[in-house]
Description:
332 residues, alpha/beta, inorganic pyrophosphatase (n-terminal core), Diaminopimelate Epimerase, Chain A, domain 1, six-stranded mixed β-sheet, 13 helices, binds manganese (II) ion
Amino acid sequence: MTDSITRFQQALAGVERILLTTHVNPDGDAVGGTLAMRALLELAGKTAEIIMSDEVPEKYRFLVDRPPHLIAEGTLESVVAAGRFEMVVFVDASERSRVGSVLDSLGDWCVEGAIEVNIDHHLSNDRFGDIAIVDPERASAAEVVFDIGLQMGLGITPSIATQLYAGVLTDTGRFQYSNTTIEALAAASRLVEAGADPALIADRIYAQRPLMFYRLLGRLLAHLEIHHEGRTALMYLSGELIDEIYPEGGMDTEGIVDYTVQIAGVEVGAFVRQVGPDRFRASLRSHGRVNVREIAEALAGGGHDSAAGCSLEGESSEVRERLLAEIAGKLP
Ligand SMILES: [Mn+2]
């Protein structure tokens, strides 16, 4: 880590324009970590722009000091017209493809041989890029960004501290997941010292959700499936229900999967949602006794030992059977 941050610092000296990006369906860590990294690069005197595939969810907009560019927007031309990027920084992406359609245009936006920097904390991270600053011991990418800021001696402003704290808070499930380590808590403590307000941040993220979120949650809980003698809980969100509850889009399902594993006796919780015709996304959680990363990897996904995910293709009942069979094989 220390060595790769030093190499990053050396590479920074030779570049002026830096592009940052993060994974599709950005969560609190992706949003907070990427915004904070941009702010740190600006403190280091660089020109830095974020381009992402999906928009920042409503509940994280309070973290946004300057809006990131969206791939779907028409503003990109002016960004690129100002000059090509000499460095691309990926934040919270376990592999290059996780950033979605941004990847298709990188060649148009960047100079040839632009330096790729990979800032992440996923165990499954494949160390892509020219410089990989990856620490799987860290609960969040935000902590890795914090380490970079500290090692580079850049000041952590209250705004940066707030963005990073949001990353630690959300990726540890409000300091509840098994990744809530001494280091994660220490980082959170130092971020509070630097100006992050824990009560305000928790309120903005968790206590200001739109009514529709709870309507959706109610429907999903009412139809929760219990399998494997009570050890597996599965929630399924069909495309029809998405269209019914969110006819104008803007669906927010973050954290819904946690309910599946908060039921007594349940070892593995799964939340499967339809993302297209015969296309699904599954999120998996466990209490740590079952390694859900292995389940996800068997289905070409990835993640952490007690929080993982994968994409699935096929007919909905067949997809669920495949997932349940994989879970059954890992139950104690
Ligand atoms: Mn993360």
